[in-house]
Structures are given as C-alpha cells and as structure tokens.
Specification:
Layout (H helix, E strand, L loop, with lengths): L1 H19 L1 H37 L2 H14 L3 E5 L10 E5 L2 E8 L7 H13 L4 E6 L5 H10 L1 E4 L1 H8 L5
Parallel strand pairs: 3-4, 4-5
Antiparallel strand pairs: 1-2, 2-3
Length: about 170
Amino acid sequence: RWRHRCGQYCLYFVEFQVIESGTEIYTALASGVFIIVLAILAVIYKIKHRKKAIRMDELEGFEFEYYCADLLEANGFYDVEVTPSHGDFGIDILAKKDGITFAIQCKRYSDDVGIKAVQEAYSGRDFYDCMIGCVMTNQYFTNPAKEAAAKLKILLWDRDYVEGLEENYGG
C-alpha cells in the first residue's frame, strides 16, 4: 500500500509540475536541444576542418600544385593550367578570373615561406605576361617575404586564404 501511495503521489507531483510549468519545460527542452545541435555542428566543423588541414599538409609538392589548381577552379578561376615541373620559370599554375591572368607559385612547406618564392613569382609573372603574381602556401610568410611582396606587387595567399578556398571545394 505504501508503495502504491508513494507512486501515486510522485506521479501526481510530476503531473502537477508539467501542468503548472508546461511552458518552462518546453523552453528548457528547446534550449537543451539547441545546445546539443550546436555541439554536434561544432564537432562536425572541427572534424571537417582537421581533415582538410591534414590532407593539405601531407601532400607532396606536385600533389599540392594540383590540389591548389582544383581549389582555384572550385572558386571561380578558369583556364587553370598546372605548368610542367621543369622549366616553369618559377610558376606552378596559370589561371584566369574575371578576365585577369594569374601566375601562381605554390609552396607546400613545413615552415614559413621566405623571400625566394616571392622573387620566383615576380619573375614568372613577367615571363608568362600575367597581370598578377601570387605565392600560394599551406603555411605563412616571413616578414622579409611580406615586405618584398608589397614592393613587387605580389599577392600572398597563406594557409588562412587556402582554407577559405577549401570551403567551396567538394573534392
């Protein structure tokens, strides 16, 4: 008997709480579901982001060039051409976007990219008669490289820029 009464009382109490604060329960449930969905989305983003970063960093030099070419095409560049590995005059990719021609030097490094890559992009831009020269990398640039690029009017596309391009890349 005691269990039965306790069970009825507990059930009554729960029902009373639901009836009295139904709106609060729905609010609490909605808040909990919202937090769970945000947590799931954050985990998915981190996994997706990590896989791309690992992929980019594990590629060999020539693989990185083709990967960059694919990224450029996925982001509105056209007539994208990877140059031959020898005799490319410092340029790995030729591309166009909005009628503007680009000469791009790709560097898949484990450290920051220095001034030599900027010099190669500068000379290669002129050799291929392109309007814009760029250095594209999976890393960042040294201060001397940044200074030279500013003086020589060479675009520097660092890791953050490449990761931004990856957002539109499906491969």
